[in-house]
TrEMBL record:
InterPro entries: Fe-S_Maturation_MIP18, FSCA_dom_sf, MIP18-like. This is DUF59 domain-containing protein. Pfam families: FeS_assembly_P (PF01883). It comes from the Bacteria. Gene3D superfamilies: Fe-S cluster assembly (FSCA) (3.30.300.130). Residues 14-84 form the MIP18 family-like domain. It comes from Secundilactobacillus folii.
Length: 110
């Protein structure tokens, strides 16, 4: 299902994606990128970044904590001046979105 993620990222958007690999889901101990929670990154000419993402569940109790960590990581990238998070529920997150690394780290085989 990873094909739904934006694949044509600019160099700046790739830097944002790299920065998001440092944001760890505290419940699972895996970063948001490898969990497949990041659906898209867009940075406009003014440096405003929109991160389109989801959470593993709608009632995720750590959403606000993650939002602060995401904003800090994104704004740490040179050239990014602001960050908005576009939280979506479609397409729904499934374990199929996780990278092989995340599956191995969590002991999921298949």
């Amino acid at each position: 299902m990873a094909e739904e993620t934006d694949t044509q990222l600019s160099p700046l958007e790739n830097d944002v994606m790299d920065a998001l690999e440092n944001v760890i889901d505290p419940e699972l101990g895996i970063d948001l990128v490898n969990l497949g929670l990041i659906y898209g990154i867009k940075v406009d000419d003014a440096g405003k970044c929109v991160v389109t993402m989801t959470l593993t569940t709608m009632g995720c109790p750590i959403g606000n904590l993650l939002a602060d960590s995401i904003t800090d990581a994104v704004k740490s990238v040179a050239g990014v001046t602001d960050c908005d998070i576009n939280l979506v529920w479609e397409p729904a997150w499934t374990m199929d979105r996780m990278s092989r690394f995340a599956k191995v780290a969590l002991g999921i085989h298949g």
